[in-house]
Known about the structure:
alpha+beta; 37% helix; two-stranded parallel sheet; 12% strand
Amino acid sequence: SYKRPGFILDIARDIRGINELAVRSHATGQLILGGGLVKHHTCNANLMRNGADYSVYVNTGHEFDGSDGGASPDEAISWGKIRITA
Length: 86
């Protein structure tokens, strides 16, 4: 950035970083407030390790539109994003 030397916005590096963190973790949990990209990438990172051990969703999304933001925990379990034992 021209106002903050050294500031770098690299979404691909961030996604790789969160995936690596999830895969290397002994256990993971997710407290997701809202939906959208943050929920999508957090859940997908846990998919890489066969699901999150703990999960709480707080959002106003609806399932009827097919968006990830409105997807229920049951949907995430079916994809392996949350462990069935969570």
